[in-house]
């Protein structure tokens, strides 16, 4: 059965002290529903990681269905760490595929800025192995730094080899009205940036922020002929897990789940990775971008850093990446991030990406990761 | 206070007690009752020597609650001599520069305080310090 994305919505990513969790989510949901015209959602899947801890609010499915005027629909929260957005989308696809519903709304929402400092670090660290990682004072950022340190030790790339990923992300963010950072940065700024968790510097980590994004899915055969927006098809979906704790892996630098989820998604779509026109990777940390390229098979092991250049991943490059700024410049509103990635891919496929539009975008690949690919979920989208 | 949560991990935290697989002899830490190598049941206790090497390391500047007083601190992936890898803090470093491959040994140290400093529960656990011969070499310099 063909499933299409009939509507998308997003809020600008940033510090939204004026908006509550329910308001920011509603904004994105309303936009997606408005775009879908007559199609009404029969189910609501909420992607969120931290609301129980940072907003003291669980039970988001019912809260948001109620607040958005959808009382009566089935609703629940889906959580898979940083991969929650992809997991919620996949749950919605499965519900439609199984014939339980004809339409489903997916909303990713995160409200990170109501708390600051150690309380936020604490909440983020709950996505690690609590008993064997977080208890030792590890944070997601420090965990990425451990991988980056080892990567430089094993493969000896040049000192600032990963800098191209954040530089290109920022250049692309400049053209995205919803990005948190809309300003290109110079290479010298990257090289002078302060260390967050050496060797990982300030520009190697995406900023955590508030945001909400939504997509409305529907069975293709139910589409009204006068749908306001050109439909985008979800042609492949793949999910995989690895060990939760990074120390339990025989090779921590191999993003095994990332590879598996891509293989599964490509297989379902019936295409090869060479047929993908652009790739939205999960660049929460610049080392993740390199390791994801290697896991996907675009780069050889230890060579992913060589892709951190304009000719490769710029908007006119071989495989455009982070086309609307990626996590680095758009920002990382955890539970919402995976949905933002899909919304951005839809903009590219509809030809609505404005100054960031890549030419002839027909097939896009979107991947979100929970931790260092402890969970990996990949979707392939295509325009008709 | 989460007393039971920390209490039930005392063997692991204080003595690096893991498991050995009775079928394929794989050493397992943390214990998980199912051998990650052969998939069979593995419930036989095994005490690790506490010796290992640094696989990777970093410095934590922005620490979570309960760890802020200790920041910045060094966290490492330590490959134990028996095979498994653990995440742990490095301690007693003095002027010693941390390097990948550096031999380290387990010690028991305070990890964090739960609640306020005066009355909160103290959590102790394994940390790793430079191996003895390494420390003597630095002292002799």
Protein model, in words:
The complex is a heterodimer of chains A (384) and B (141). Chain A has helices at 21-35, 51-54, 60-67, 84-97, 118-125, 140-155, 164-173, 187-192, 256-269, 286-296, 310-313, 326-330, 334-350; strands spanning 3-10, 43-47, 74-78, 103-110, 195-197, 200-201, 211-219, 232-241, 278-280, 363-370, 375-383. With 384 residues, chain A is of the alpha/beta class. Chain A has 2 domains: 3-116 and 208-222, 3-Layer(aba) Sandwich (Peroxisomal Thiolase, Chain A, domain 1), CATH 3.40.47; 138-201 and 234-382, 3-Layer(aba) Sandwich (Peroxisomal Thiolase, Chain A, domain 1), CATH 3.40.47. In chain A, strand 5 and strand 6 form a beta hairpin. In chain A, helix 4 (84-97) packs across helix 13 and helix 9 packs across helix 10 (286-296). With 141 residues, chain B is mainly beta. Chain B has 2 domains: 1-48; 50-141, OB fold (Dihydrolipoamide Acetyltransferase, E2P) (Beta Barrel). A 5-stranded antiparallel β-sheet of chain B has the order 6-5-4-7-8. In chain B, strand 1 and strand 2 form a beta hairpin. Chain B is globular and about 45 Å long. The chains are: A alpha/beta (384), B mainly beta (141).
Spell out the key features of this protein.
heterodimer; A: 384 residues; alpha/beta; Peroxisomal Thiolase, Chain A, domain 1; 9-stranded mixed beta sheet; 13 helices; 11 strands; 34% helix; B: 141 residues; mainly beta; OB fold (Dihydrolipoamide Acetyltransferase, E2P); 2 domains; 5-stranded antiparallel beta sheet; 8 strands; 40% strand
- The parts of chain B where pLDDT drops under 50 for at least 5 residues are none
- Shape field of chain B: globular
Mean pLDDT metric of chain A? 97
Largest sheet of chain B: 5 strands, antiparallel
Q: In percent terms, what proportion of residues of chain B is strand? A: 35-45%
What's the CATH first level of the largest domain in chain B? Answer: Mainly Beta
> What is the overall number of helices of chain A?
13
Work out the strand percent of chain A.
15-25%
> If you consult CATH, what is the topology of the largest domain in chain B?
OB fold (Dihydrolipoamide Acetyltransferase, E2P)
- The CATH architecture designation of the largest domain in chain B is Beta Barrel
The low-pLDDT segments of chain A are none
Structural class of chain B: mainly beta
Number of domains of chain B: 2
Spatial gap, N to C terminus of chain B: 45 Å
Q: Can you count the helices of chain B? A: 3
The average pLDDT score of chain B comes to: 91
Order of helices and strands of chain A: EHEHHEHEHHHHEEEEHEHHHHEE
Distance between the termini of chain A: 15 Å
What form of chain A results from the Cα inertia axes? Answer: globular
